[in-house]
What does this fold into?
Amino acid sequence: MSEVILGVVITHGDLACSLSKVSEKLVSSQVKLHCFSTQVLSSEEIIRKINNEIATQKPQRILIFVDLMGSNCWIIGNKLKHEHSDKTAVVSGANVPMLVSYLINAPRLEWEALLEKIVADAKKGIVLR
Amino acid sequence: MEIQLFRIDDRLIHGQVVIGWAQHLNSNTIVLCDDSVAANEWEKELYLSIVPNHLQAFVIKATDLLKELKNQNNNWGKTIILVDSPFTLEKLVQNNEKFPRINVGGIHFKDGRKELLPYLFLDDGEIQCFKRLMAKGLDFFCQDVPTAKPVPLKRLLDKQ
It folds into this structure.
């Protein structure tokens, strides 16, 4: 792994943990995702918990996956990016192909290439037939 | 004219407001009243960036909103006003300005708050603040999205 990355999924409802569990099961990866739902917790509380993870794990990079651009999840992601700007990215439209791509590629790709790859794979997973 | 929707929501501008309520009510303006966001240019831009083009949106301080509420020429009939807490609302309730029934859309969990509804968690200070506002004649209904059943806040607080 080129860098230590903290992968965080923030979504509405139970989606974050479901997406994370499904993706981790598909890949059997050593890379872990941390899931947070906005259903119950206040934004302040989610930010506090993620900052605790950051303080504990001291990652070199933080990748925040959210389900919907413009949502409260996206706002939380952007507030964290503002706080840890030099090493953080927020990606919206999280889906299983995106997370699977992250779990597979995080250990082998450099940061910029990883970001491009996960976005491309998420789009590739949307097919109309 | 009466304010179309006055909402307390600790998430401020987000999907439930711009997709849910604004669409349901056919609103044309969102006013976010928050001293902290108004004082932070970056945060203000962040919230305004998520408002769709067909809606106007403004971020203002409580003191400025208070002046606007007193201006009889303003038309609030298509406007959603958002505040984060009952404390901000309390700053606005001074001279018997006429408020509509206030929508309590969401105050979420953090330490010290207890659950009243799945989207409503309050600590003792917030409960007391709501009670003070009720004593001044304000009426509150809890409803996170337009399709949900409204619940009178008084009924929940009477059980506390």
Remarks:
- Chain A has one domain: 5-124.
- The interface with chain B takes residues 12, 38-45, 68-72, 74-75, 78-79, 82 of chain A (CB under 8 Å).
- Chain A has five helices and four strands.
